[in-house]
């Protein structure tokens, strides 16, 4: 009777990582590594190396000269670069030598390498187990954006990016915010996502340019602010409605910025006129100055319109038109409407109708310059009714 016992089958455990967070492993993945006789990393600069050092875990890294030492047998692995072939061979040899190897995938490990490694392990009678990371945390794609921005601002990066300053980028931030607002007004989810990306790029660009702060400081600052100003969520304050939330927010903000004593301190001077009017009115409203309802606000609009019509000269008329526009903003707010978005929508509708009218004239061979006022009114009514 044969009393010999077959040697256990060599084992290779492939541990998946998140490309953006290759130094982070969930508990189940770390436990799988600790069950192996040896942990292997793709190279000495693998992000997990320092963590394993602190945990005093035994590990090895694939030698950088492995390609020169394993060229012969490496040719058995098809479809890979010579270096990847040699790396795969070396990992399998270590598994067969020690019994079980836990290989942690690194940022440079391609799908072709890992799949071929698994297939070759089967041919070499090495048992393969794959441990997946699981659910990746939200926000990891932002790390890709930061990495791209770092690359653009590197010494050998983009010449245009290298010339930029916070001041030179400021107009782009304003432009991107307006384009985002336009996409929101159009109700286009794809456009909103794209414009949000452009806005986010402005944030990372400024953060990478600065020597006083980085993207982590920016994120930490706004995170701390949100937690502070939402005590009804993160503390024991009670807020049952949106009005109470806003009131609490303003009280906390006032405590954080005691230097702002004037009613309009903190209102950016560079806001578009309509948005600036709405912001100033909102601040005045906190102190009790506001029209009680939309009807009262509409009466003020009518009064301002009369004053426009009664103005005796251009200077006075310009002032009265400004008052009229300001009163219209008040009426919009009293009606619960964002005046900036309302006007943006009106501009969009005007553009659409006018472009459609001009296209129709071109199709008919009509010169727009030859239309009378009545002709334009008729055409305009038709374009509006066609919507």
UniProtKB/TrEMBL annotation:
Coiled coil: none annotated. The keyword Hydrolase applies. InterPro entries: MazG-like_dom, NTP-PPase_MazG-like_C, NTP-PPase_MazG-like_N, NTP_PyrPHydrolase_MazG. SUPFAM superfamilies: all-alpha NTP pyrophosphatases. Keywords: Hydrolase. It holds the Pfam family MazG. Residues 164-234 form the NTP pyrophosphohydrolase MazG-like domain. GO terms for biological process: dATP catabolic process; dGTP catabolic process; dTTP catabolic process; dUTP catabolic process; response to stress; TTP catabolic process; UTP catabolic process. GO terms for molecular function: nucleoside triphosphate diphosphatase activity. This is Nucleoside triphosphate pyrophosphohydrolase MazG.
């Amino acid at each position: 009777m044969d009393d010999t016992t077959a040697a256990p089958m060599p084992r290779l455990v492939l541990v998946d990582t998140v490309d953006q967070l290759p130094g982070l492993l969930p508990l189940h993945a770390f436990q799988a590594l600790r069950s192996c006789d040896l942990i292997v990393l793709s190279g000495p600069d693998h992000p997990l190396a320092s963590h394993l050092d602190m945990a005093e875990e035994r590990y090895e890294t694939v030698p950088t000269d492995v390609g020169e030492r394993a060229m012969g047998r490496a040719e058995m692995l098809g479809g890979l670069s010579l270096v990847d072939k040699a790396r795969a061979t070396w990992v399998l040899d270590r598994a067969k030598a020690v019994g079980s190897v836990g290989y942690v995938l690194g940022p440079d490990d391609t799908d072709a390498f890992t799949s071929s490694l698994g297939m070759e392990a089967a041919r070499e009678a090495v048992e393969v187990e794959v441990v997946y990371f699981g659910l990746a945390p939200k926000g990891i794609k932002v790390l890709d954006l930061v990495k791209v921005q770092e690359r653009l601002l590197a010494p050998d990066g983009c010449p245009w990016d290298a010339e930029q300053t916070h001041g030179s980028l400021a107009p782009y931030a304003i432009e991107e915010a307006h384009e985002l607002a336009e996409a929101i007004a159009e109700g286009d989810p794809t456009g909103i996502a794209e414009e949000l990306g452009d806005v986010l790029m402005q944030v990372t660009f400024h953060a990478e340019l600065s020597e006083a702060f980085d993207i982590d400081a920016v994120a930490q600052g706004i995170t701390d602010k949100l937690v502070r100003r939402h005590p009804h969520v993160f503390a024991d304050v009670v807020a049952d409605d949106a009005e109470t939330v806003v009131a609490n927010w303003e009280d906390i903000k006032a405590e954080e910025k005691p230097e702002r004593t004037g009613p309009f301190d903190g209102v950016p001077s560079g806001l578009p006129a309509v948005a600036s009017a709405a912001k100033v009115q909102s601040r005045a409203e906190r102190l009790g100055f506001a029209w009680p309802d939309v009807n009262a606000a509409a009466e003020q609009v009518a009064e301002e319109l009369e004053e426009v019509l009664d103005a005796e000269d251009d200077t006075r008329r310009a002032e009265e038109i400004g008052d009229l526009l300001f009163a219209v903003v008040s009426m919009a707010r009293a009606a619960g409407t964002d005046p900036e978005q309302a006007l943006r929508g009106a501009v969009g509708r005007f553009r659409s109708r006018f472009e459609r009218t001009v296209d129709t004239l071109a199709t008919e061979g009509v010169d727009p310059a030859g239309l009378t006022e009545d002709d334009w009114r008729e055409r305009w009514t038709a374009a509006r009714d066609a919507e």
